[in-house]
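Priority: medium. Attachment 1 of 2:
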């Protein structure tokens, strides 16, 4: 008679009582109770060994020894690294391998899961493909992180990431995210790391003006004068700056893991330590688990404190923009761009009483002498992803977009400005 679940222990007791009496055949008893002879002998011997029927209760089937379970030392190492960095199994096993400790990522994941250190996350849609520049310093991505808060206030970090290596070229805790503060941070980065060939940024007010030709600001003009190509991301497409956006996500994860800085004054040190760890310690999956520092090197292009004046072609009609962003021609002032104050531009005269203003290789304004109005050469809102490359001619893309220029009258009082 097979045992029911509820009566299991009672049946074991009945079997053992009759089996230990010695008056019945063990084989016959096993057939009667519906069990095998080895099982019958196991129950009888267990009773004789412990001397009480409580020993017949169901016991754990967990093995006394697990040859495949991680050694205690290895388990402690994985847990220690997890608590320090908050990273996943692949990154932790890479760190262990760097120290000569072999630990498959599946083993590390089991250790984390067994110790309640695996947090379920919502599924992510992986990118179809990754795109990166071929060399370090070919393109830097720059963006503001958004406020990091502490008990007595917060800071607004500025992040600069190398596109090829993901190396954090700069990470600055700015009290105020103003153009002068951003430029001071860029100066430090340029003097320490050299100059990139191009910089990609969104349309933040510090480096893009919707009311200026080509979106120029005083800051982007400074970049252009260093021979840096300025590229703005598309409107409402933050994925254009995907690497720096992902970098900001890593900062958020680190803040969530260790709490960040307690005071505003401590954010600078905290970000410096994070940057060092991110560049030199943290393995990056997009880099085959190498560190960004292993794929980055300093740029050979040096920052020029006094960049040379741009040389226009011989015979060009050159004018200098005054402090109000205007040039003098035809007996009056014409507004061009406040961002170009103090810069030299070239005038090119066309038929039908028209002049165009060129800054280096960029056409920035069209002047209608008949109506007294000026037009932006490119409407900023429609020039998605336009790169301002002053080392080479702008090309057909800039020319094709002149049809989208927005009419803009000269500012009030422009005629009377010196």
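Attachment 2 of 2:
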């Amino acid at each position: 008679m097979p045992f029911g679940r509820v009566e299991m222990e009672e049946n074991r007791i009945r079997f053992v009582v009759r089996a230990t009496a010695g008056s019945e055949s063990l084989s016959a008893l096993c057939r009667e109770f519906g069990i095998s002879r080895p099982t019958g002998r196991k129950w009888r011997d267990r009773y004789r060994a412990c001397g009480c029927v409580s020993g017949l209760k169901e016991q754990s089937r967990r093995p006394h020894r697990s040859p495949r379970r991680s050694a205690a030392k290895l388990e402690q190492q994985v847990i220690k690294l997890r608590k320090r960095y908050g990273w996943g199994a692949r990154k932790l096993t890479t760190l262990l391998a760097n120290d000569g400790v072999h630990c498959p990522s599946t083993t590390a994941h089991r250790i984390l899961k067994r110790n309640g250190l695996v947090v379920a996350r919502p599924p992510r849609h992986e990118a179809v493909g990754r795109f990166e520049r071929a060399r370090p310093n070919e393109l830097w991505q720059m963006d503001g992180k958004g406020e990091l808060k502490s008990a007595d206030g917060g800071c607004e970090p500025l992040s600069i990431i190398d596109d090829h290596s993901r190396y954090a070229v700069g990470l600055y805790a700015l009290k105020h995210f103003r153009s002068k503060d951003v430029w001071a941070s860029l100066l430090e980065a340029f003097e320490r790391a050299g100059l990139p060939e191009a910089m990609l940024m969104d349309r933040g007010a510090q480096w893009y003006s919707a009311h200026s030709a080509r979106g120029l600001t005083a800051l982007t003009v400074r970049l252009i004068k260093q021979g840096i190509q300025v590229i703005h991301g598309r409107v409402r497409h933050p994925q254009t700056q995907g690497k720096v956006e992902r970098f900001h996500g890593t900062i958020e994860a680190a803040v969530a893991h260790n709490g960040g800085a307690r005071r505003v004054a401590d954010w600078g040190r905290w970000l410096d330590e994070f940057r060092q760890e991110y560049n030199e310690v943290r393995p990056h999956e997009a880099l085959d688990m190498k560190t960004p520092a292993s794929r980055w090197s300093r740029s050979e292009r040096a920052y020029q404190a006094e960049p040379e004046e741009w040389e226009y072609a011989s015979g060009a009609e050159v004018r200098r923009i005054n402090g109000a962003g205007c040039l003098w021609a035809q007996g009056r002032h014409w507004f061009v761009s406040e961002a170009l104050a103090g810069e030299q531009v070239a005038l090119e005269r066309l038929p039908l009483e028209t002049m165009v203003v060129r800054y280096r290789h960029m056409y920035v304004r069209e002047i209608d002498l008949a109506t007294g109005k000026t037009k932006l050469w490119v409407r900023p809102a429609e020039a998605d992803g336009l790169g301002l490359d002053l080392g080479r001619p702008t090309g057909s893309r800039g020319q094709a977009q002149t049809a989208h220029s927005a009419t803009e009258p000269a500012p009030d009082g422009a005629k009377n400005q010196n």
